[in-house]
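Researcher: Good morning. I'm working through a list of sequences from a screen, and I'd like to move beyond sequence-only analysis. For each chain I'm collecting a predicted structure so we can compare shapes side by side. This is the next one on the list. No need for commentary yet; just the structure.
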Amino acid sequence: MGAVRSPANYLSKIFHTLARAGILTSTRGKSGGFRLAQAPEETTLLEIVQEFDDITAGRQCLLGRPVCSDRTACNAHAQWKKTSEAVATFFRETTVADLLGKRPPGWTPPEGA
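Model: Good morning. Structure tokens for this chain:
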């Protein structure tokens, strides 16, 4: 599988959004660029993704029902609830270091990973 190519202006907008949020720092000049504002072990994927999508917000019904809860569940509710909670846990507990293969001492993968 080859490298993923993204348009430079698209990446620039993403990086500037993350810099405004304090996740990245930016430096101008010959040796400039973007860097993580804190250590990769301290930067969760949730911090990054939440700038673009609120994955921690209440789930929406997969079948489009306006009200879908444990009390008024649709046919997909139970399975979707487990899946969405697992996704939220993954983003909350996974760090940039985990993706880079740099795990600090004592690190254990999120449950179910």
